[in-house]
Structures are given as C-alpha cells and as structure tokens.
Amino acid sequence: MENIKQYLTVPEVAEKLGLTDEWIRDLIRKKEIKAVKIGQWKIKPEDLQEFIESRKNIR
Prior knowledge:
By secondary structure, the chain is an alpha+beta fold. The chain has three helices and three strands; from the N terminus they run E-H-H-E-E-H. Strand 2 (36-38) and strand 3 form a beta hairpin.
C-alpha cells in the first residue's frame, strides 16, 4: 500500500477547494471524488487532481 501520509483528509481537501467538509463527504458518497476509508476518509492527491480536471470548463 502507498504511504498513507501522502493521502489528504476531508478537511484538507475542503480547504484546498474552498468547500465545506460536508460538501466533500457528499462528493465522496456520490463517487465524484475517489476516496478510501482508513479510520476516516482519505483522498489521494492524484485523485483530487483528477476531480479538479474533470470540473474544468473546456473551451
């Protein structure tokens, strides 16, 4: 398994995106952001980047 210290917590992701913790958990529940439950939800930085890229407006 990858180094768990590299994973981001829900509050860290919320801060990066300017959203609430609850909003991030909702996105995880809807499977819009990939996450794993290791005591609490953890998000890989590359999965967060993938989510961000999928939300960008393409012109």
